[in-house]
Input
Amino acid sequence: MKKIATAALLGATLSVTPSTPALAESPIGFAVGGGSLNFDVSGTFADVDSGGTDIDLENDLGLEGGTGSYIYVVIEHGVPLLPNVRLAWTELEEEADVILDSSITIDGQLFPENTFVRTEADLSHTDLTLYYEVLEGTIDLDLGMTARKFDGGITTTGRNIFGSVSATQSLDTVIPLLYGMVQFNVPNTGLYVAADGSLLSWEGSSFYDMWLKAGYLFSMGVGLEVGYRKIDMQLDDVEGTDADITLDGQYMALLFAF
Output
């Protein structure tokens, strides 16, 4: 349980942090925290059911990235065979306005060339991670599984001299992911470096969420962390959607461990 701070700042799946004497002595460790992420976004998506063509997030819709946020709660315990638990909520939203230089089709709806369109993208998600501490000490190792729930999508509204049109390419699905984390704790300090990720590949689709991080946990149970996160999503007819989307950027996080 010394490593609850690590598992906490982990997130994807959302962040990690090292140990404190209080956590090591307690039968139950508890941590909460959150952070901000400056992200870039790129890639394409298409509605398979309506036979839509690939829509480029940046070139067609003007989506380039923005600022996201996340919070998490971690509980570690000493009960044999029962996994530790982390809940994480990530908000990734962006809005952009463009005038189309070519026609596009979203969810069966045609948006003609020269149409003014506003796009609202929501790739927010909720994670439930169940994991076991395989190693604990100078080197920590966690292994488990994450269930990631997306409940958003991309909504585009267009206006031209003929009126207005709107279409939504929804992303409403649960993705089961393999989860792993490895962390090196610098002896006799609160410093650590870590990497963690959640990934899965199935039937022509793949998904991974990777974190690289460095941080410091103070003796009073407050931790600071900075790092890099990358999400890569390749969907082949998942809930009627094809997608090849990447989000990546730097993040900062704050942790409170009890």
